[in-house]
Amino acid sequence: MIRRGTEKMKRVTRLVSTVVLAATVAMPLAASAADRSVKVLGWGAKSGPLKSFGVNSEAALRSAIAQINAAGGVKLGDGSSAPLEVISYEDSACKKDQNIAILRKTTSTTDAIVGMGATCSGSCQAMFGVLQKKVGDSSDSGVQMPILSDTCIRPGLAKISEWAFRNVPNEVAMYDKLFAWLRSENPDVKTFSGGTETDQGHSFITHTAIIVQAAVRHGFEWVGPSVPELGPKVKQGMKELQAAAKTQHWLMGDTNYSVQARKIKKQNPDMILVSSHPFSACGFLKEMKRQKVKPKLLVGLTSSASQETLNGCMSAAEGLIIPTGFAPITPEAVSANEIVSEAGGFLDLHSAAAWENAYLVKAAVEKAGISANSDTVAEDRRKFRDALASISESAGLIGPVTRDGATGEASKPYVYVQVVNGEWKVIHDPR
Amino acid sequence: MDDFWFEFVEVTQSIGDGVLFGSTYALIGIGFTLIFGAMGKLNVAYAAAAMAGAYSSLAIYILFDAPLVVIFIVSAICAAILGYLVYLTCFRFIPVHNHLAALMASVGGLFFIDEVIVHATRGSPLAFPSMFSEAYFEVGPYGIRGDLLFVFFIGLISTGVLLYVLFRTRLGLATRAVAQQDVAARLCGMSIHLTNSTTFAVAGLLGGIAGAMTAAAVGILSPVMILPLTIKGLIVTVIGGLGSIPGAIIAGLFVGGFENVVMYFRGIDERDMYVVALLFIFLVFRPNGLFGKTITRD
Amino acid sequence: MDYFLNLVNTIGIHTLLGLSAYILLLTGQLSLAQAGFFAVGAYTAAVLTVILGWGILPAIGLAMLITGLLAFLVGFPALRVRGLMLVVATLAFGEFVRMFFYNFRWRVTQEGVEVGPDGTMGFSEIRYFAEHGWTSWEVTSLIWVFVILVMAIIWWADQTRSGAVLRAVGEDELAAGTVGIDVTVVKMAAMTAGGVIAGLAGSLYAHQITMLDHHAFTVLLATFAIAYPILGGVSNVFGTLVAVIFIQGLLVEGLRFLGDWRMLLFGALIIVVMNVKPRGLFDSQTLRWIKSVLRLHLSRRIS
Q1: Which of A249, A266, A311 sits opposite B126 (nearest CB)?
Q2: Are C200 and C64 in contact (CB under 8 A)?
Q3: DSSP 8-state assignment for residue A428
């Protein structure tokens, strides 16, 4: 009995000493963490069909923050250093109510100074609506919490609230330059046509108001009835949208694309736009391949510049050209890509933004000079927001990201990638 | 005249494509109708189990580098096993007359299967190998997809086999007996659970084929396809008449063709709206569907 | 605190949604149209407060009236069919409503900014509560006044003859008809009441979430609406509340620490509950048990 007791005792001691040893090894990192850390909380879709978005962004955010901490963390207002800490990365399932719940949870139960979410433009739009519209407006009882988003890409979202910030590509500029370049490279390409998924707000609005318009502007000719120009501003008016009504439409969960593909085949355009997410883009591309539609140029939606497209339809997507805000073309991007892959994610235009956001948080924290005490959270959040709003340029993975302080929108460098032999290749670098 | 001819070709071509594609709706509809016929209950998890069958066959195809032909068989078997599991978890232990609880449990089953698929694939669409995808027959002004034709024939064959089993074998006799009068069937010494579980497995077999067919016809498998397929399957079942296999087949092909015509003329924004309107018309003018028997009081 | 109040609000809104299906379930009808009524209520109330500048209470009132009327109109053709046919017919209605809002646009310019429903792009910035400086407590109070009111009315009705009539129709239509109950009238009344409550839930939802689009009103929401009363049990109104707390409180929010395994457990737990308690989490048995425990407790205290 006693023997067994001492045996047990010994085992416990051994366990305890191992833990202590492990703790001392980890000490140099943990030492500064012991007193203070700058907390952030992230969220994204980690369940449901868009799971990959959340998983990739989480891997990127955590890896970048680990890298920042390994390099000494961030400087606080009193000159001391503290590590950044991801309190958790929640699953918002791409649902509006869950997004709002997490936002309120972050605001009211944690010391996080910034929320970093979320997947899906629609749910971001709901979340931004819950925020206070104008900073310091005491008549507005909206939530006061800075949000720095990586995936809410639908045009114009950040203007809903002054607390909302995005690090997403500026699609207007991206596609404008793309078609200018395509125009000069392919003088023989004259007509174009295409399609989009109408149940995804981002795809639909980007296709009708941005992509088609940019192509028209650069002298490509819509087959059939001509599309009137919208002018420089992205408007969402009914008339303008109807102008693009000759576009083929489908839904994200569709299984049959034969009618749309056949109509495009009949039009026989030189260039085809496929403005949709990988789920339906792949279905449509495969149907075009079956019907032997072979355009000279194939242009896609920026959200499709991802691993998912290759998983779904590597051979049918051959030749697809997409502008994207990320490609491993700089040393930083290459190393980030490796680190994130090791962490179990893919770096694409969305998750690369999550990586950049970690550094953006660092910059804003250092500029704001926050104190990171648990009793100054509200004040820190406000300071952080003001600092973030005043940062007009930050370093991105493939080049500097500029930001318009008034709208909270970013303008990012971009490159054009193409599926060549089953892989994304950078075909042009306009930086 | 030329314009008319051109339009005519386009429309008939769309109908043809839709009808061929409708065979997948028909198979899903048959599955719903079989289970409903046997138990009087709705198995909402059915289409999800069918797609899960297709996913498992894809996994086996990739892992073991299996020949293409095997895909449909593996998918059918996996979906049959899943169908049986759904029966065990969602129907077997719930009191026979508690339809609501069984319905809700199968809704739980749908969520569960859906999320398992997402968890295993991260929700990413996956390329699905299809047979004869290169075959494209040009008959006059028409073009016919070889793979859809193949898919259509597989659908026909499996329906034929099903009808044979149902009307020419003892198993089929038992299924029909339980469906008509479960108390009487039990009194005659039949095991309700055995018959029911067999029905689920058989329906699962068909579902697996339908799942693989859908995936082959689209060329990809993705979790966003499950819910639309479930809804289309239910609509087909109701239009065909609950419990009627020929009804489900005709309704499946009909809905496939119909939605492509609407697609051709009115576009995607109105396609599903017209399908739903069609359903409403059926419910008002033929509440028992194409071939449904008048529901009598038991 | 804000977070918990938000959760309490969500539970309140979903309880109303569940109760709207509960009334129909009492008469033995499984309706997937509730998501449609919910959507109509949400859009109506939001249009009233955002575009027409109404106050929240009149907006909610009119939204309830309109959805009630709609439910009444839909009831006529839909109630011709029963059982699974009704499920699919109401599902079709729900999808029809969803597609209507998918195409619905009404943009007006207010102070230089365009607002209003914008088809597939959704209807955002329904910020009545925030703009009028409502605190979280006030929002929660508003929602729960309605929830308690509706629960009390249904509870009271259930105790009186009307409850017995509803249940009689649910148990056996033919038998109910033979004892002189006008089955159609009873069903239509249940349908209309269900519509009114779903409209109320929707109008509250619109202002809680601030953004509406067709993604929110899919068949999934309709399934949740019937899931609450079925999971909770139809023996009394508290079943629905218990089920909403189980789903929204426990499965959606409570299990967050499980990360991406949470949603896997979601479906599995529904299956488990239905197998273990096929008559619902809070059936008459549970109620009896609670009563007996209370009585025991009281008698002990007295002695």
Answers
A1: A311
A2: yes
A3: E
Q: What is the DSSP string of B28-71?
A: HHHHHHHHHHHHS---TTHHHHHHHHHHHHHHHHHHH---TTHH
Break chain C into its structural domains and give their ranges: 2-234
Question: Contact at 8 Å (CB) between A399 and A431?
Answer: yes
Q: Which residues of B touch C263 (CB under 8 A)?
A: 111, 115, 118
Task: Check pLDDT > 80 for residue A365.
Answer: yes
| pLDDT at res. A11 | 55
**Spatial distance between the Cα atoms of C95 and B268, rounded to a whole number of angstroms:** 14
Structure tokens at A242: 């109807």
Task: State residue A100's pLDDT score.
Answer: 94
Residue C225 CB contacts under 8 Å (≥ 6 apart), including other chains: C17, C18, C20, C21, C32, C34, C35, C38, C198
Go through A127-166 and write b for each residue having 16 or more CB atoms within 10 A of its CB, e for each that does not: bbbbbbbebeeeebbbbbbbbbbbbbbbbebbebbbbbbb
- Give the burial string for B286-298 (b: 16+ CB within 10 Å, else e): ebbbbbbeeeeee
Q: For a pLDDT cut of 90, what percent of chain A falls above it? A: 37
Rounded distance between C-alpha atoms, residue C204 and residue C73, angstroms: 23
User: What does the pLDDT read at residue C53?
Assistant: 92
Q: What are the average pLDDT values for consecutive 10-residue runs of chain C, which has 303 residues?
A: 92 97 92 95 96 94 97 85 82 88 86 83 90 93 97 93 89 87 91 96 95 90 94 90 94 86 89 91 83 83 67
Helix (H) or strand (E) holding B132: none
In chain C, residues with a C-beta closer than 8 Å to the C-beta of A101 are 3, 6-7, 10, 253
- Interface residue C59 vs chain B (CB under 8 A): no
| CA–CA dist B197, B1 (Å, integer) | 58
Taking residue B116's Cβ as centre, other Cβ atoms within 10 Å add up to 18
> Which CATH topology does A36-169+329-413 take?
Rossmann fold (3.40.50)
Contact with chain A for residue C140, Cβ under 8 A: no
Question: Domains along chain B?
Answer: 2-135+145-285 (1.10.3470)
B45 contacts B234 by C-beta, under 8 angstroms: no
pLDDT above 60: residue A18: no
pLDDT of residue B131 exceeding 80: no
- Nearest one of B70, B77, B22 to B53, comparing CA atoms: B77
DSSP per residue over C123-174, as a string? B----HHHHTT--HHHHHHHHHHHHHHHHHHHHHHHHSHHHHHHHHHHH-HH
**C84-107: per-residue pLDDT in tens?**
778 888 888 898 899 889 888 888
Answer whether B227 sits within 8 Å of C103, measured CB to CB.
no
If DSSP codes are grouped into helix, strand and coil, which group holds residue A156?
Answer: coil
Size of interface A-B (CB pairs under 8 A): 116
Strand pairing report for B126-127 and B220-221: antiparallel
DSSP for C9-64, written as a single string: HHHHHHHHHHHHHHHHHHTT---S-HHHHHHHHHHHHHHHHHTS---HHHHHHHHH
All CATH 3.40.50.2300 domain ranges of chain A, comma separated, are 36-169+329-413, 171-324
A171-324: CATH number: 3.40.50.2300
The complex's ipTM?
Answer: 0.91
> Which long-range CB contacts under 8 A does B56-59 form with residues at least 24 apart?
B57/B208, B57/B212, B58/B126, B58/B128, B58/B215, B58/B221
CB pair distance less than 8 Å for A258 and B127:
no
Amino acid at B24: T
What are the tens digits of pLDDT across the range B232-271? 999 999 899 888 888 898 999 999 999 999 988 888 878 8
Q: Which amino acid is at A346?
A: F
Nearest to A255 among B126, B218, B269 (CB): B218
Nearest residue of B to residue A277 by CA position? B125
